[in-house]
């Protein structure tokens, strides 16, 4: 999760020490797998965000309209407001 | 340039499909043999990623040379020296010059080297990760005056994949991190 966060927000902070730590838990193959997955998501989430396309299903599994989905997952996601309130 | 994950020696890669993809990546020069041999450490993921990267770069309806300029613009924005240093052999063979690349990755808006459609595509890539809020409904309406919806998806998917892999590669490069 630290690798993911830094790749998106502060890639200059990624150093040999972080990779040494990653290697305690993951194989070289798994680190590459993780890195590709993170990069892919980093690129595509922003692209999809510009399309204003939201998930077809609410977190509780209901099929929802794009308007309702935008309220749940959009600029001010309900999931985050609920988290902040709790 | 040294990498935090070393490229796998070819002698350790037995999968013929993966070897063919690495050869293709080397011949096109993008994503290049070093990237291909690094991701080869996870063959199950390397194969679809390499295939998608090369297919989205060289196939489709949008000009390959324009995509190559976009790719380098993104690499400069991502501050990724590895991908920034690569040049597509196909784009070179089709006549893409360093002058056009530098203009595309620089002040392309005022450059006479690009059409309005090309400038719009460059702006799409430029703004996507600089300020995605500017890639709004009005911007897509402008894109649609130059490109079909299929071409816009072709461009968007290409931009997203290239930028994502550039950011991943950047985390592997010691030269750029100072570590």
Give a brief rundown of this model.
The complex is a heterodimer of chains A (86) and B (179). Chain A is an all-alpha fold. Chain A has helices at 2-9, 16-25, 28-51, 66-73, 78-85.
Any overview of this molecule?
The complex is a heterodimer of chains A (86) and B (179). Chain A has 86 residues and is mostly helical. Chain A folds into 2 domains: 1-51, no CATH class; 52-86, no CATH class. Helices cover 67% and strands 0% of the residues of chain A. In chain A, helix 1 packs across helix 3. Chain A is elongated, with a radius of gyration of 17 Å. The model of chain A has no long low-confidence stretch (mean pLDDT 88). Chain B has 179 residues and is mainly α. Chain B has 2 domains: 1-59, no CATH class; 63-170, AhpD-like (Up-down Bundle). Chain B contains 11 helices and no strands. Chain B is globular. The mean pLDDT of chain B is 96. At the A-B interface, helix 1, helix 2 and helix 3 of A face helix 3, helix 9, helix 10 and helix 11 of B.
Order of helices and strands of chain A: HHHHH
Oligomer: heterodimer
What portion of residues of chain B is helical?
55-70%
Determine the CATH superfamily of the largest domain in chain B.
AhpD-like
Shape of chain B: globular
Q: List unreliable stretches of 5+ residues of chain B.
A: none
Secondary-structure element pattern of chain B, one letter each: HHHHHHHHHHH
Strand content of chain B: under 5%
């Amino acid at each position: 999760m630290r690798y993911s966060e830094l790749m998106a927000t502060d890639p200059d902070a990624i150093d040999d020490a972080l990779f040494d730590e990653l290697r305690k838990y993951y194989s070289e193959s798994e680190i590459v797998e993780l890195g590709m997955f993170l990069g892919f998501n980093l690129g595509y989430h922003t692209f999809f965000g510009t399309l204003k396309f939201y998930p077809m299903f609410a977190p509780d599994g209901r099929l929802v309209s794009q308007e309702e989905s935008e309220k749940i997952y959009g600029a001010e996601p309900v999931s985050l407001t609920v988290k902040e309130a709790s | 340039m040294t990498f935090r994950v070393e490229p796998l020696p070819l002698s350790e890669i037995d999968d013929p499909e993966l070897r063919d993809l690495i050869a293709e990546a080397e011949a096109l020069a993008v994503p290049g043999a070093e990237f291909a041999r690094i991701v080869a450490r996870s063959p199950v993921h390397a194969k679809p990623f390499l295939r998608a990267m090369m297919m989205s770069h060289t196939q489709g309806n949008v000009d390959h040379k324009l995509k190559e300029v976009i790719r380098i613009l993104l690499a400069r924005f991502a501050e990724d020296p590895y991908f920034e240093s690569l040049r597509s052999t196909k784009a070179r063979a089709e006549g893409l010059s360093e002058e056009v690349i530098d203009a595309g990755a620089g002040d392309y808006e005022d450059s006479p080297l690009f059409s309005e459609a090309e400038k719009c595509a460059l702006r799409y890539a430029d703004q996507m990760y600089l300020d995605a809020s500017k890639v709004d409904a009005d911007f897509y309406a402008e894109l649609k005056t130059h490109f079909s919806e299929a071409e816009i998806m072709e461009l968007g998917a290409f931009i997203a994949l290239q930028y994502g892999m550039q950011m991943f590669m950047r985390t592997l490069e010691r030269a750029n991190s100072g570590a």
